[in-house]
Design a protein that fits this description.
The complex is a heterodimer of chains A (468) and B (195). Chain A contains 16 helices and 19 strands. Chain A is of the alpha/beta class and 468 residues long. Chain B is an alpha/beta fold and 195 residues long. Chain B is globular. The chains are: A alpha/beta (468), B alpha/beta (195). Chains A and B meet through α2, α3 and α5 of A and α4, α7 and α8 of B.
Chain lengths: 468, 195
């Protein structure tokens, strides 16, 4: 047996097309996901140089960022409409499969890839979207790229990539009752900051990670970019294989058994070395709420906003608190919200909606709150409706919408007004992210649901009685 | 992209850490299907108030930085979204060089693909130049051949950009054309994977 390898090394080595001393490696790309916002200029670039799409069969497109989540047939914004029509035309011209906004496979690109089984262990996956790291949950090497690289992949099915360093985020122990995968990743970023992963690919390991479902793993890997890492992944195991079995783009029968074996063999070898390792005790983590304007500015729901005299970055903290309209040393539970958004590529899957619905059931949204639920895909919406989850939300006073990115980045009509304050299950709390002047607090679906009912943040563990 | 060998320009200070791409170019401006014309939207909500008036307290609005082509800023510049509209807006506004203690990975990559030179320097040097740019004025000359930066007092520091990226910047090469020279290897890889 050779030297023990990490999953990143194994996938990397298998995909090198060309390697030269002092140069990045030329890496083959197995799956290229495309959406309407970051692709038009790439297709235009091909057209200007009279180049073809090398592998339309390895390319898959959908519309998600701009799509209306109600009255889908009416796209009020002319530039949004043109952008989506442009994608349609480009896909037709170059022979690329497209789930447009009326297609039953439509959804947020990082929700539908796994759902269709396009996302598979060992694949190299790229998309012109930073949350492509989501697909790493399957043990794929998946990362976001810019439009120039989108054009490069369309034309060559490859990318020049410097061999990355690896960061092992090792999570020991068990998450406590009522503590979600979202709390785990938010707590990691709060503790280690938004650039702990810069220049690295994160591999999440340890007992707590193994126990997570695929959907929870996607939530973790999704936010790797918020820790600075372009990619974050988890070695495949039986949970991964079980999830993929029977999905549309996954082979069946003998071929599947053979693939499953290959997938499991990708897992990082015992004794493989990482460039850096950090260890976290899952049992110490409490439900999280961000209070500031980057994802590391967070605290446990039982905590307070920071005091300026205890932080290193006084200027940045002061500016963030000011933008957020918060005082220093303010109890998190005292923060009153007026909007709730349950959705996004971080937390819009069926299990997320189920967990939120469980909290909401038989209760009413607080009169000061406008709450919306935006399923991650058309299929998630259908499944939720079959289970009656939509009715639970609607009875409580939530708006039940069609699939899309929606209020995570407010490129469509789903916008938080200036000064509005939103408990959001999304991934970024940057200034103006959910609307100019809007204030975002990142939380888990359960925490967002409880905040919708109470009008302020509450400790979900006490709310549900799992903790006295 | 336009080649860049040596560049002399006025420095505009942006003394903040973790400037994200949502600030560099807010999402309402991502709907255009062109690569050009994004400069007018650069740092939109920091440059303009809600009525569309210039905010006087934002450094970039100070007339002395009007012709700045070099941006000097804090840690983790360009974090967040992968939108290439961020470097497009910086370039269209007139910036050719960005100097920071560190950059977010995707933004760093996107800059290199557009002929913007992202230079990492140690914090101490940045703080020193930041002070000078804020309090008086600072002009820097960036030399990509020798990998040096010289200020108006002839104080010189060196930087490093890996050769592959540096050659692309200096020559303004079309990366896809370079890659297509390896097309036989790509085809061979595909054959190997099929069998």
């Amino acid at each position: 047996m050779g030297k023990p390898k990490t999953i990143v090394e194994k996938i990397w080595e298998k995909h090198v097309v060309h390697s030269e001393e002092g140069m990045p490696d030329l890496l083959y790309i197995d799956l290229h996901l495309v959406h309407e916002v970051t692709s038009p200029q790439a297709f235009e670039g091909l057209r200007l140089k009279n180049r073809r799409v090398r592998r339309p069969d390895l390319t898959y497109a959908t519309m998600d960022h701009n799509v209306p989540t109600q009255n889908r047939h009416i796209v009020k914004d002319e530039t949004s409409r043109i952008q989506m029509e442009t994608l349609k035309k480009n896909c037709e011209e170059y022979g690329i499969e497209l789930a447009d906004m009326h297609h039953p496979d439509q959804g947020i690109v990082h929700v539908i890839g796994p759902q269709l089984g396009l996302t598979q262990p060992g694949k190299t996956i790229v998309c012109g979207d930073s949350h492509t790291s989501t697909h790493g949950a399957f043990g794929a090497l998946a990362f976001g790229i810019g439009t120039s690289e989108v054009e490069h992949v369309l034309a060559t099915q490859t990318l020049w990539q410097d061999r990355p360093k690896t960061l092992n985020v090792h999570v020991e122990g068990d998450l406590g009752p009522g503590v979600a995968a979202k709390d785990l990743i938010l707590a990691i970023i709060a503790k280690y900051g938004v650039k702990i992963g810069t220049g690295y690919i994160i591999e999440y390991t340890g007992e707590a990670i193994r126990k997570l479902s695929m959907e929870e793993r996607m939530t973790i890997c999704n936010m790797s970019i918020e820790a600075g890492a372009r990619a974050g992944l988890i070695s495949p195991d039986e949970t991964t294989v079980d999830y993929l079995k029977g999905r549309r783009y996954v082979p069946i029968g003998k071929k599947f058994d053979q693939l499953a074996e290959e997938w499991l063999a990708l897992a990082t070898d015992e004794g493989a070395e990482y460039d850096k390792t950090i260890t976290i005790d899952a049992s110490e983590i409490e439900p999280q709420v961000t209070w500031g304007t980057n994802p590391s500015m967070g605290a446990p729901v039982t905590g307070r906003t920071p005091s300026l005299d205890e932080v290193e970055d006084k200027e940045g903290t002061k500016r963030a608190l000011e933008y957020m309209g918060l005082e220093e040393n303010q109890p998190i539970s005292s923060i009153k919200i007026d909007h709730v958004f349950i959705g996004s590529c971080t937390n819009s899957r069926l299990s997320d909606l189920r967990k939120a619905a469980e909290i909401v059931k038989g209760r009413k949204v607080h009169p000061n709150v406008r709450a919306i639920v935006v399923p991650g895909s058309f299929l998630v919406k259908m499944q939720a409706e079959q289970e009656g989850i939509d009715q639970i939300f609607k009875d409580a006073g939530f708006e039940w919408r069609d699939a899309g990115c929606s209020m995570c980045l407010a490129m469509n009509d789903d916008v938080v007004p200036p000064g509005g304050r939103c408990a959001s299950t999304s991934n970024r709390n940057f200034e103006g992210r959910q609307g100019n002047g809007a204030r975002t607090h990142l939380v888990s679906p359960e925490m967002a649901a409880a905040a919708a009912i109470e009008g302020h943040f509450v400790d979900i563990r006490k709310y549900t009685g799992v903790l006295n | 992209m336009e080649p860049i060998k040596k560049h002399t320009g006025i420095v505009c200070p942006l003394n903040r850490d973790n400037v994200d791409t949502d600030q560099i170019i807010p999402k309402q401006f991502l709907k255009r299907i062109e690569r050009t014309g994004f400069g007018q939207f650069l740092f939109y909500h920091w440059r303009y108030d809600d009525d569309g008036n210039l905010r006087p307290d934002f450094a970039m609005n100070d007339p002395k930085y009007k012709d700045a082509t070099i941006l000097l800023t804090g840690e983790n510049f360009g974090c967040g979204s992968s939108r290439e509209h961020a470097p497009w807006s910086l370039l269209d506004y007139g910036f050719r060089v960005i100097i920071a203690p560190s950059f977010a990975d995707i933004f760093h990559n996107n800059s290199l693909k557009n002929g913007i030179v992202p230079i990492e320097l140690d914090r101490e040097q940045i703080d020193q130049w930041m002070k000078q740019a804020e309090e008086s004025e600072l002009t820097l000359t960036v030399d990509l051949i020798n990998q040096t930066i010289t200020d108006q007092n002839q104080h010189e520091v060196s930087f490093h950009i890996p050769d592959y990226h540096r050659q692309n910047l200096i020559n303004g090469w079309d990366e896809i054309a370079l890659t297509l020279q390896h097309e036989d290897k790509i085809a061979a890889y595909e054959q190997r994977m099929l069998s």
